Amino acid sequence: MTQDLKTLRDTVSKLLVPFLWLHVALVTLVAWMLGKNAVPVCLMAASVALVATAAWASAPSSRTSRLTIAVTFIGMASILLADCQGTECQIDIHMYYFVAMAILAIYCDWQVVLAAAAATILHHLVLNFVAPDLVFSGGSDLRRVLLHAVVVILEAGALMWMGHRITTLFAASAQYLAQVQAASQAAADARAELDAQREIADRERQARLAEVARQIRTVL
């Protein structure tokens, strides 16, 4: 991993962890506005945010923390979806999964996108049989789940490819910069060597002139 890529990923994590905590307030507010008991929603969302925070705090630059943040982000989207159960906007909230994956793609880490996609598909598939109303207002609908899965896979594939290309460009840029720095250092070393040789030549010339002058004085 190049230093620039590491800096980018660290910055994304520093932004996403507080963003997850903002979701705690968001899902709590949505539950309250819809007339639901906001306390369990708030506690569940806070627990999800706490898991991401703990993973990030223990190893800020690790892939584990990035994967944890990715899965908890999808978890927050799922809590928001459950918040809107039975409302007109429930189906619209599904778009937030795609938003979450797009945001996570900023990591430029294909495994993060893959984890988010897998968590999204698994959530829809499992709840379609366990608690279908938390996914779609009309109850169980396997065909719709499969359709969403296909869309998620297509988006994930595009984002993973894009992340891989950007990572490759980061590596190529770092390699080119290293070559430029090496060439610059080599040029600086060559200039220093040339200056040293010139200094030696000047001292030798001055010594020869001094010797000639001494010999002239001796003859005279």
- Provide the helix percentage: over 70%
The pLDDT mean sits at 89
Uncertain residue segments: none
Q: Helix- and strand-based class?
A: mainly alpha
Q: What is the domain tally?
A: 1
Rg calc: 31 Å
What is the number of strand segments?
0
Per the principal axes of the C-alpha atoms, what is the gross shape?
rod-shaped
Number of H- or I-type helical stretches: 7
The biggest sheet amounts to:
none
Summarize the helix and strand pattern as letters.
HHHHHHH
Distance between the termini: 75 Å
Task: Summarize it.
The protein has 220 residues and is mainly alpha-helical.
Properties at a glance:
single chain; 220 residues; mainly alpha; 7 helices; 85% helix; rod-shaped
Descriptive overview:
With 220 residues, the protein is mainly alpha-helical. It has one domain (3-173). The protein is 85% helix and 0% strand. The protein has helices at 3-33, 38-58, 63-83, 90-93, 95-104, 110-130, 142-219. Helix 2 (38-58) runs antiparallel to helix 3 (63-83), helix 3 (63-83) runs antiparallel to helix 5 and helix 6 (110-130) packs antiparallel against helix 7. The longest helix is centred in the C-terminal third of the chain and has 78 residues, at 142-219. It is rod-shaped. 30% of the residues are buried.
Question: What is the secondary structure topology, with strand pairs?
Answer:
Layout: H1 3-33, H2 38-58, H3 63-83, H4 90-93, H5 95-104, H6 110-130, H7 142-219
Helix pairs in contact: 1-2, 1-3, 2-3, 3-5, 3-6, 5-6, 6-7
